# Entry
Amino acid sequence: MVNVDSLVGRNSLHRKVQRSLRIQKLRALGLIAPLFIFILISFVIPIGDMLFRSIENQLVSEVLPRTTEYLKSEQINEGWEPPDELFWHLYIDLAIATEVKLHTRVGSRLNYEKTGISSLFRKTGRSIKKFGADDYSKALSEQMPELASIDYWELLSQGTSEKYGYTRDTYNTWKKNLIANDHWSEKTKPSDFLFVVLANDIKSQEIDSSLDASREEKLLPVISELPEIGFKERFLDTDEDWAEPDVWDTIQLYSPSFTNGYYLNSVDFKKGSDGPKIRPENERLYVLIFSRTLFMSVTITLVCLLLGYPVAYFLANLPLKYANLFLILVLLPFWTSLLVRTSAWKVLLQNEGVINDILVATGLISNLERLELINNQTGTIIAMSHILLPFMILPLFSVMKTIHPSYVRAAKSLGATPWTAFRRVYFPQSIPGIGAGSILVFILSIGYYITPELVGGTTGTFISNRIAYHISSSLNWGLGAALGSILLAVVLALYWVYDRMVGIDNVKLG
Amino acid sequence: MAKFQPYDTASDKAWYYIFRVICGLIFFFLMFPILVIMPLSFNAGNYFTFTPEMLRLEIEGFSLKHYRDFFTNPDWQVALYNSFRIAPVATLLSVGFGTLAAIGLSQSHVPFRRTIMAILISPMIVPLILSAAGMYFFYSRIGLQGTYIGVVLAHAALGIPFVIITVTATLAGFDKSLTRASASLGAGPVRTFFKIQMPLILPGVISGGLFAFITSFDEVVVVLFVGSASLKTLPWEMFNGLREQISPTILAIATILITLSVLLLSTIEILRRRSERLRGITQS
# Structure
């Protein structure tokens, strides 16, 4: 059927309008795209990386693949004893890891969950070379000199024989690790522990009567003369902590590539084999810091509101000429460097600082009872209220400017007292400003870092200071990232509310 | 308007004065730290409070030695140099990308406008420590951590929201018939942009740029994480100075920075007035 519309051209006009709209949209998006991509790469992806680090836990299973694989099927409880075979796998994993120094990294990773593991891994890493593998390499390469060359192992690793599967796997993992960590070169010699693995593979085929290759014939007699290495005893001699079920339990718990352990730690819980458990009283820390952060942010917001409301009211009711003049008193601190304002407060609030000096000089306090105004919560609250006050005044001012004075006058003429007129008429109209200013100040204060770090001491610090500590000092990045993600979730929720309420493009700057 | 109406009671009048005193005290609170730090920076001793000589206004009590230290100490000079090496480049990036995007965002048909806007503004809302942590993680992966480019990129991202906000605000009052008039007189889109649109939004662009500049110039958290020892900026040195042993030189720097912000504030105020005049918005 022929469409009549298209014959008379109505549809084509419609299409033309559609097309021009589409072009407009594309042009707008084309203008936005460069910045969008820029923000994506320089900001959004980094934030995503942080979220990823808060659950990522590949290190343990990457460095200890055999051990973690074996542990998967183990039921670890109080009376559990680590079996001999487990130590065999641990030996190979650690032998490879120590050559590229990865054992210390796994050690420190697991140390975040159970203290002592880091030194256990270091100690073991130092003594693992003395477990007796050198006897094997010496004896075997004496019998078969080509074993001392890496080329022979390369050939061996390319073979397909079932018999040498374990040797092949081990060799390949070892080589891969050396290459990945820049330890591989033309001159690399096969490590001692590889000979133990090879000997083990040959030995376990003893029953096989169809031994045909010369390799086995040559090596088997030597191997059977060599003393068997008791790995379990060696490990326990190095450090008896290896018998502790707790250590193995920790390794098992942190075997998976992803973990919720960091988040549990962030709320003072501990990951356990029988589900998360709350930490004992003396190990709890983060709930306290989170609630302190909330408490101080609320206090700062309230102080700002209390100080900002009268000023905004004053400014809004002045003739514009004067209002602009007084506004400068608000904008100048706003424009002054954050560090300048923080250093000013640090100087003022000191024990020997200006404020204490004035108080002593006026006789309000004696020289001996100077007030502790800094390096505690008081310091943080004073300094941050000062720094964030303009963020409260400006939105309040812009809302109050729009409240017409005739409302209050009408209320008064109807018999309301000034207080009632304010409470029933003016105040309700200023609530949007209170909301906007309070959310803004709260969002900004909850994530503050610089000022609490400088004037907060130990009791006046925020969760941000703890995050910075984990990222730059304790290097427990995962925990820092998990704490950060929780903070981010709170801030984004508030941001969403703010956007709904005020509209993010209505933010006024200056 | 008279101060008081004839029907105002005594308590109304009293409240009027009490309220003014309260406001005066709050203004005092706002300005006090800034006002105190300036004279202290001329202290002849290494103290952080007014010495008796200063209070008696004796000339021996004052000196410029902290300023001399700032201008001769190589640590501070390197920091100053680094700050001036990073901030302008970051500002140029923010202004370039930001202005384009702001023009795009002010078109009449932009799909997902709200979401895009929220994402572009987010560097201003997300706590700096989280931006710093994320950038530290990601930039180390791609080899930008501790490099000049890394710091510039990070600072540009932090400055962009300010450019977007100021430029979209200027564009909101922009009369679209001007571009149409220009087009009807035969000018192409590029010519229209440079001859008509650009001069009108320039004040917004410049004040956005000043915001971006001050953001980078005053930024310390991200630099601490993304930067390296050779990229120490002025705020970094100040932060270290404040955290370890606080030296009076910081007071001199603070005074210089306050002067700088007074200059910036005046520039922005002048630009704002000019922009309002150009766009025909008169102050009521």
User: Anything to note?
Assistant: The first helix of chain B runs from residue 10 to 40.
